[in-house]
Specification:
Layout: H1 44-50, H2 56-72, H3 86-97, H4 102-117, H5 121-128, H6 130-139, H7 150-167, H8 170-184, H9 191-211, H10 215-229, H11 231-247, H12 249-265, E1 271-276, H13 279-289, E2 300-306, H14 309-322, E3 325-332, E4 345-350, E5 356-363, H15 364-372, H16 376-379, H17 386-405, H18 409-419, E6 424-428, E7 434-438, H19 443-450, H20 452-456, E8 458-463, E9 466-468, E10 480-484, H21 501-532, H22 543-553, H23 558-566, H24 572-583, E11 599-601, E12 609-611, E13 623-628, E14 632-637, H25 641-649, E15 654-659, E16 667-676, H26 681-691, E17 695-701, E18 709-718, H27 721-732, E19 737-742
Parallel strand pairs: 2-5, 11-15, 12-14
Antiparallel strand pairs: 1-2, 3-4, 4-5, 6-7, 8-9, 8-10, 13-14, 13-15, 16-18, 16-19, 17-18
């Protein structure tokens, strides 16, 4: 077994600078990696950071992890030329800023040993325990598994990482620290690789940081991603901001002085900071509002920190008394926190020069959570981060739910990306419970957010007391009420407009289960019918019969075999013939199938039975069934031209069908009516259809209305042939009707 030597750290170590919070008004400058080339790597700075909150035993374990990682990476260098060990040490320092525990810090030091140096999980367990080993392997990519594309590899890597994160939040905290340091030192990479990593960071890692409330990391990742994905735009904006910073310095000082005096006069103890908005947020505002930099006035904002929640609202009153508020520019994220647990009051005021100025007002506890999110749990453990912890836990649980119902990695990643969107709307249940949903969410998203059963049984929705289509986009403040029916099921069309990953995965899962059940039921009926014509009964097959049959078919269970038959992947007559052959100890798989009997349709087959749109059969018609592979059973008229062509190609895929009595449900039927052109003709025909309790699904007519006669083509929902005949008789009695007949199958 490979064991790296336990060499001690180098003598007389130079201290590395502690990774600290950036000054409030500052643009990140490029990191000069070359200037740090061959710099000795020391553990001293990290030990200095953590000695204040970890025990001596913890420090000893971290020293051991450092020695192990240092030996494993011996002779390995980063693209900048630095010893590779400098990277895991820097990652651990970022984690130490968040006051993460010793196990997370050890994982930060060791996270690349498994991926890059082949250290096994068993070795990590032996040296550092199962928890540290699990954290490390939650952070590794899947380089040893071969995928068909880079995108598939990336999707599977993210799926693994997010699921590991759902089980232990420290996985993603270490991963974000890893990505942050990589982004800070990205200059050494080739331009194309820089752009790819920057895009990945902005699409995945920055939104995850936001979703976990790590707003400081979120802003820095966005700015670094912007710098490396659009270097020219970044450089131009950076220069413009430096100029603007000098020009507007006096304005910032004036506002700080005036507001500080106002708060003092009101007797409110505050900490007041001016802050510069990030380059990326300025760039995004320019894009959103189609403005040049010269026309973006609010590049500075102010942060007001107060002792208590009540002081937030008192401070708001002071500010509104000093400067006029801009209408519609006030948001209360204290009463209604953001999805990531963020709480503050936001207000935009008209400053002394007429330019808009944004203020954020929050307590010290809110400020800690606003900057550090879930990491505040390790930073302070005061209970002030309860909102963030609760929302994060709910989101992580939803990841596990989505994974359980969706094993496709690429689809899983796309689903999660939707839930990472920063924008949200806040809506109310009829009992005044608040739900936060991604912008663009619909009543269907709302119903699944409340409960899966509510979503599955949704048939209609009311928004603010009015019935609305299920695809209606919800807005903040809407009161949403869901109308349900106990036997309703999700509609596949919902997938075209739902916004949340939870709703999408639940709908897909319900449809899959429904199709499986219906296919198994149809397959059971088909096999039972086929066995009767072999002189056997399905109920009489014993355990030995099933064991031989499943061994022959390769199916794992009876239900799986029934499902294959129902989907047309296996022909019931061939399976029944095999049962007979196995029962008589014969082994001739090519025996011709016996004569087919008719399978009875009763209208309850669901998605496993389809009615062909080429001929539109309805109960009472002479029909045949086609078992296309993986398509279930398709019902055709016996004289359908398309059915005849399919029969010539696949004669053994057809079965006789009959209709049970009575049938349930409505079936589409084509109707053609030629009429004398005149006013009110269509309305009178529609009335005749309606009087006979039928629905008009669709209607088309000739474009040329100048002709004396015109052809109307209806698609009606009818019960059976008799129902359609009654409608035809009612239509033909009108004198303006020249001819009325059922639409013929398309050739």
């Amino acid at each position: 077994m490979h064991r790296p030597p336990t060499s001690a750290a180098g003598s007389a170590p130079r201290k590395r600078p502690v990774v600290r919070r950036k000054p409030e008004i500052q643009v990140p400058e490029p990191v000069d990696a070359a200037s740090q080339h061959d710099r000795p790597v020391s553990l001293g700075s990290l030990l200095e950071q953590i000695s204040g909150y970890l025990t001596d035993a913890d420090l000893q374990q971290i020293r051991g992890a450092y020695r192990f990682a240092d030996a494993a990476h011996l002779g390995q260098y980063r693209a900048s030329g630095e010893p590779y060990i400098s990277h895991p040490v820097a990652v651990a320092e970022i984690c130490a800023d968040w006051k993460l525990d010793s196990q997370a810090l050890m994982a930060a030091l060791l996270h690349d040993t498994a991926e890059d140096k082949g250290i096994t999980q068993a070795e990590l367990v032996e040296h550092f325990g199962s928890t540290v080993a699990t954290l490390c392997y939650g952070l590794t990519k899947l380089d040893k598994i071969h995928f068909s594309s880079r995108e598939e590899n990336q999707a599977e890597s993210f799926r693994k990482m997010l699921l590991a994160m759902a089980r232990d939040i420290r996985v993603i905290l270490v991963k974000l620290a890893d990505r942050l340091h990589n982004m800070r030192t990205l200059d050494a990479m080739a331009a194309e690789k820089r752009r790819r990593i920057a895009t990945e960071t902005m699409e995945i890692y920055a939104p995850i940081a936001y979703r976990l409330g790590l707003n400081q990391v979120y802003r820095e990742l966005q700015d670094l991603g912007f710098r490396h994905s659009h270097p020219m735009r970044y450089a131009v904006l950076s220069q413009a901001l430096r100029v603007a910073r000098g020009n507007r310095r006096d304005l910032v000082d004036r506002i700080l002085a005036a507001t500080t005096k106002s708060f003092g006069d009101a007797g409110i103890k505050v900490q007041l900071y001016g802050r510069e908005k990030t380059l990326y947020s300025i760039y995004r505002k320019m894009q959103r509002k189609h403005r040049s930099f010269a026309h973006v006035q609010d590049i500075f904002g102010f942060r007001v920190i107060v002792p208590e929640v009540l002081d937030c609202y008192r401070a708001l009153g002071v500010l509104h008394a000093q400067y006029k508020p801009m209408p519609g520019k006030f948001e209360d994220f204290i009463a209604i926190p953001k999805l990531n647990g963020y709480q503050s009051l936001h207000t935009t005021l008209i400053g002394p020069t007429g330019a808009p100025v944004e203020f954020q007002i929050r307590t010290e506890a809110m400020h800690r959570v606003a900057e550090s999110g879930v990491a505040a749990h390790w930073l302070y453990k005061t209970g002030a981060d309860a909102v963030t912890q609760a929302t994060t836990s709910a989101w992580l649980q939803s990841l596990l739910d989505i994974q359980n119902e969706n094993r496709d990695a690429a689809e899983f990643l796309e689903t999660v990306k939707v839930d990472l969107a920063p924008d949200a709307v806040y809506v109310f249940t009829p009992k005044s419970r608040i739900l936060a949903l991604p912008r663009g969410a619909t009543p269907v998203d709302f119903s699944y957010a409340v409960h899966t059963d509510l979503g599955n049984q949704t048939v209609a929705a009311k928004v603010n007391g009015e019935l609305v289509p299920l695809r209606t986009e919800l807005h903040s403040g809407d009161v949403v009420e869901i109308v349900t029916a106990p036997h309703s099921r999700p509609n596949p069309n919902w997938l075209g407009f739902v916004r949340t990953g939870r709703a999408r995965s639940k709908i897909r899962h319900a449809l899959k289960v429904s199709q499986q059940t219906e296919s198994q039921d149809l397959g059971r009926r088909l096999l039972a019918r086929a066995l009767v014509h072999q002189g056997l009964r399905l109920e009489e097959l014993d355990t030995a019969d099933w064991a031989r049959l499943l061994h022959w078919s390769g199916n794992r269970s009876q239900d799986e075999l029934f499902g294959d038959i129902g989907l047309g992947k296996r022909v019931a007559d061939i399976v029944a013939a095999r049962v007979r052959l196995l029962d008589t100890a014969a082994d001739d798989a090519s025996a011709a199938p016996p004569p087919r009997g008719a399978l009875q349709l009763d209208g309850s087959e669901g998605a496993s039975v389809h009615y062909a749109s080429c001929c539109r059969p309805i109960p009472g018609d002479a029909v045949l069934g086609y078992l296309g592979k993986g398509e279930g059973l398709t019902v055709h008229l016996q004289d359908c031209p398309q059915a005849r062509r399919l029969f010539q190609k696949h004669p053994h895929s057809w079965i006789d069908l009959s209709w049970s009595s009575p049938m349930s449900g409505l079936y589409p039927a084509a109707l053609v009516v030629v009429v004398n052109n005149g006013k009110g003709v269509l309305a009178r025909l529609a009335a005749a259809v309606s009087e006979h309790d039928a629905d008009i699904v669709h209607v088309t007519m000739d474009d040329d209305s100048s002709q004396p006669t015109i052809e109307l083509r209806f698609l009606l929902a009818v019960r059976d042939r008799k129902h359609l005949a009654d409608i035809l008789r009612a239509i033909r009695v009108h004198k303006f009707v020249v001819r009325a007949y059922r639409g013929k199958p398309r050739a």
